[in-house]
# Entry
Amino acid sequence: MKKSIVIFYFLLLYSVVQLFSWGTLVVKLQPSRMAMVMGEGSVFLFLLCIGAYFLHQSIKKEDKLREQQQNFLLSVTHELKSPLAAIKLSLQTIVKRDLDKVRQTSLLNNSLKDIDRLDDLVENMLLATKIENRSYSFPKEEFDFSEMVVKITDRLQIHSCGCEQVINLKIQPGVKIMGDPFTLSSVVTNLVENAVKYSGPCAEVSVELKNKDGHPFLTVSDKGPGIPDDEKMLIFDKFYRVGDENVRKSKGTGLGLFIVKEVLQKHDADISVRDNVPQGAIFEITFS
# Structure
């Protein structure tokens, strides 16, 4: 990429030098054509600068996308290796040691949790690919959204913390919605997982679902570091993650909120993010 930029600027400089050289030569041979040379040269130089600007922006965008894809591959590798290593260790412990039934059951349950984590990661990558390829049809049906949210939060509650409840639920029963259960479950999963991940161990996360003005309204609140104002809209871009990649401690692929935005657009739903008090972020979804 750097080599391409160097060649591009070299050709640009060469073109400008040639423009002035030929213009000077024409004026020396035919001084009466100075006005024409100045006018046409100015137009050519203007168009050349405009083209150079847009080409430079395109190169920068491509370079940024390439960097984000590299970070994504590194993140996915880490996300895959961690649960696989945990599963391997649990199974090796069961095989090599004479454990009682309770201890075996505990290790197997932990392995199942890590398998669920792997399954969520794979589903996110597959869904993101299908959305971009426009190969997913979003089949819609009426279903109980309240039951879905409770089921997902119960599963993530087990993942979150072993010492106390961290996901506080306030779910109005019987909230129905017309939509695609598969992709909407991914929306809820991604939002709650993000809230748990960025809030830290055993920190409080709140999930509220109710009918507001006749429309389903979902809120996911956390007490994490929050999101800077200038990044609140960028977080829904593919591969984008808040903060500096070199110092970021939280794991993730940058696909979760991209999927959330794309799925909600297909359901004519709006999502907004605002600051929590005293710290954290609040995601609000309003269905039409």
User: Anything to note?
Assistant: The longest strand covers residues 205-212. The radius of gyration is 27 Å.
